[in-house]
């Protein structure tokens, strides 16, 4: 349900209000803030109810129904004030996300996100030269930042072409997976046939040897 906010509501809200209700730009801010404001108020309340009554599944069902009702009110679109109320109702239902985060989300975030970040950075560092690691990682992070800016702009322009949006998303995922499979073999061996573990051990031994040499006192000349 939370994906509806980003995939449907946010890209269509302004044109919906402007064309159908002649709303002013400042009212867009009210409607956008209503969802977050309602979720801010009710998230701790719903979380506390789950701690007291020990019925998280029932509360999650109720919150989901509230969010469905709010989205239904949004598509009914009786007036701009009705839209504002629909976002408040949806925000109340979104407060149930605290239950999911408490049960599942924290564990997934703790495991999946660091795993993906470390693996992607490690993969990228293995495929670039040692003397250009800083520049390569900077370019990689810049590309990620540009993608985070351009992707929502492009997605918002394809709201009336859902098959195009879906096709491009699937194509990008397939392309990324293909590139990962092709480059994955380079993590196992290098040109000399040594595996990554041997290379790492040799590097650590070299660094330790240099460190031991630096710790030795200089011999004074007689």
From TrEMBL:
<dbReference type="GO" id="GO:0022857">
    <property type="term" value="F:transmembrane transporter activity"/>
</dbReference>
<keyword id="KW-0812">Transmembrane</keyword>
<dbReference type="GO" id="GO:0016020">
    <property type="term" value="C:membrane"/>
</dbReference>
<dbReference type="InterPro" id="IPR036259">
    <property type="entry name" value="MFS_trans_sf"/>
</dbReference>
<dbReference type="InterPro" id="IPR051068">
    <property type="entry name" value="MFS_Domain-Containing_Protein"/>
</dbReference>
<dbReference type="InterPro" id="IPR011701">
    <property type="entry name" value="MFS"/>
</dbReference>
<dbReference type="Pfam" id="PF07690">
    <property type="entry name" value="MFS_1"/>
</dbReference>
<keyword id="KW-0472">Membrane</keyword>
<protein>
    <recommendedName>
        <fullName>Major facilitator superfamily (MFS) profile domain-containing protein</fullName>
    </recommendedName>
</protein>
<keyword id="KW-1133">Transmembrane helix</keyword>
């Amino acid at each position: 349900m939370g994906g509806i906010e980003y995939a449907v509501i946010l890209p269509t809200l302004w044109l919906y209000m402007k064309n159908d209700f002649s709303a002013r730009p400042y009212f867009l801010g009210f409607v956008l803030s209503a969802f977050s404001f309602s979720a801010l108020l009710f998230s701790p309340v719903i979380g506390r109810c789950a701690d007291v009554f020990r019925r998280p599944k029932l509360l999650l069902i109720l919150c989901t129904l509230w969010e469905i009702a709010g989205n239904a009110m949004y598509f009914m679109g009786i007036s701009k004030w009705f839209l504002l109320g629909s976002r408040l109702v949806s925000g109340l239902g979104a407060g149930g996300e605290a239950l999911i985060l408490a049960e599942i989300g924290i564990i997934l975030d703790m495991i999946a996100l660091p795993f993906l970040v470390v693996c992607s950075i490690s993969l990228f560092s293995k495929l670039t030269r040692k003397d250009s690691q800083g520049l390569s990682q900077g370019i990689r992070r810049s590309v990620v930042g540009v993608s985070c800016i351009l992707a929502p702009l492009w997605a918002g322009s394809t709201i009336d072409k859902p098959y195009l949006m879906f096709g491009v998303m699937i194509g990008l995922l397939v392309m990324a997976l293909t590139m990962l499979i092709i480059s994955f073999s380079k993590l196992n061996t290098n040109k000399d046939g040594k595996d990554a573990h041997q290379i790492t051990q040799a590097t650590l031994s070299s660094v330790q040897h240099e460190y031991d040499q630096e710790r030795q006192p200089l011999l004074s000349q007689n």
